[in-house]
UniProtKB/TrEMBL annotation:
Entry-linked InterPro entries: 6-PGluconate_DH-like_C_sf, 6PGD_dom2, Ketopantoate_reductase, KPA_reductase, NAD(P)-bd_dom_sf
Gene3D superfamilies referenced in this protein's UniProt entry, alphabetically: N-(1-d-carboxylethyl)-l-norvaline Dehydrogenase, domain 2, NAD(P)-binding Rossmann-like Domain
Pfam families cross-referenced by the UniProt entry: ApbA_C (PF08546)
SUPFAM superfamilies listed in its UniProt record: 6-phosphogluconate dehydrogenase C-terminal domain-like (SSF48179), NAD(P)-binding Rossmann-fold domains (SSF51735)
GO terms for MF: 2-dehydropantoate 2-reductase activity; NADP binding
Key words of the record: NADP, Oxidoreductase
Identification of the protein by name: Ketopantoate reductase C-terminal domain-containing protein
A GO cellular component annotation in the UniProt record: cytoplasm
Domain annotation Ketopantoate reductase C-terminal: ranges: 175-292
């Protein structure tokens, strides 16, 4: 049966284009009435003729895949609860974390964490996408109860099989919560700096940020512990440098948002760390300072490099 793809970013576009070109059944849900035609340069670096994605009008579907911005999650969940198809597995992917995640997302089936995927899909807009190599994609049950509710092994194999055909490589992992925290940390150590310095990711390696990144990482390690998640400082710093190198020529999603005049996800990245640390009675002065610098930099923009 068809998948329903929600979201207008590169990841949703990639899955839509792969499903369409492989003849897999799907629908898309966009904010407008109907999806716009999509042109796609595939893994073989061939531009496929532009096609009109199938717009969802309430038809039955077997899985919902939503790759959206963190600030859209709460409205999306409220809308999704009103759909007849809200009982099918819901795979949710977004950057950062929400303060009230436990209450807001209890019925989410699986989380997808893409460490570099979006940066390797170039989106001129939702209607022109090109593929530039695979990223690191991990999928896992959001909560143990999701595994029980969805006949774990059969569902897991089915979800993974479709994602492997469309987003490959995708790994099913048991520690998705841990990986979401790691991704949060990596985004906090990269994204705000790319906006403050108006630079591509690779430039961060030349800006002597190691000490600041270490202080920031240490604050996240302490906070994660309050949530029962153990992160290792050295490992976070190493992974951050690896991602910076892997995505050197790309702009971070936050810089892209700023340059396109869209809202950013900072409240769900650095802002999340500041607010949660406060809630837990922890000090996070380095994130606090970074957040202030980030917002100041929005009013004094420099030329992008
Ligand atoms: O996820 C990213 C983002 O831009 O949001 C990183 C990994 C930092 C790469 O750009």
């Amino acid at each position: 049966m068809s998948w329903l793809i929600v979201g207008e970013g590169a990841l949703s576009g990639l899955i839509t284009a792969e499903m369409a070109s492989q003849g897999l059944p799907y629908y898309v849900k966009t904010r407008g009435q109907a999806a716009r035609p999509l042109a796609y340069c595939n893994r073989q670096q061939q531009w496929l003729p532009s096609f009109q994605p199938e717009t969802w009008r309430g038809e039955p579907v077997s899985t919902i895949f939503a790759a959206i911005k963190a600030y859209q999650v709460s409205d999306f969940i409220a809308e999704w609860r009103t759909w007849e198809v809200s009982t099918v597995p819901l795979i949710l992917s977004y950057n950062g974390m929400l303060l009230d995640e436990q209450q807001l997302l209890p019925d989410v089936t699986a989380h997808l964490v893409c460490t570099t995927a979006a940066e390797r899909i170039r989106a001129d807009d939702f209607d022109r996408l090109s593929y530039h190599g695979s990223g690191l994609n991990n999928l896992g049950w959001a909560l143990p109860s999701a595994a029980r509710a969805h006949d774990s092994e059969g569902q897991q194999a089915e979800l993974l099989a479709t994602l492997e055909r469309t987003l490959a490589p995708v790994h099913w992992v048991d520690n998705i919560r841990q990986l979401r925290w790691e991704k949060l940390a990596i985004n906090c150590l990269i994204n705000p700096f790319t906006v403050i310095y108006r630079c591509r990711n690779g430039r961060l390696a030349e800006l002597n940020l190691e000490q600041r990144q270490q202080q920031l990482a240490a604050e996240i390690v302490l906070l994660a512990r309050q949530f029962g998640v153990t992160l290792e400082l050295e490992n976070l710093l190493k992974k951050t440098q690896y991602i910076i190198a892997q995505t050197a020529s790309n702009r971070s999603s936050t810089l892209v948002d700023v340059l396109s005049g869209r809202p950013t996800e900072m409240d769900y990245l650095t802002g999340f760390v500041v607010a949660q640390s406060e809630r837990c009675g922890l000090a996070a002065p380095h994130h606090q300072l970074l957040l202030e610098q980030f917002y100041q930099s929005l009013t004094a923009p420099a030329d992008p490099q």
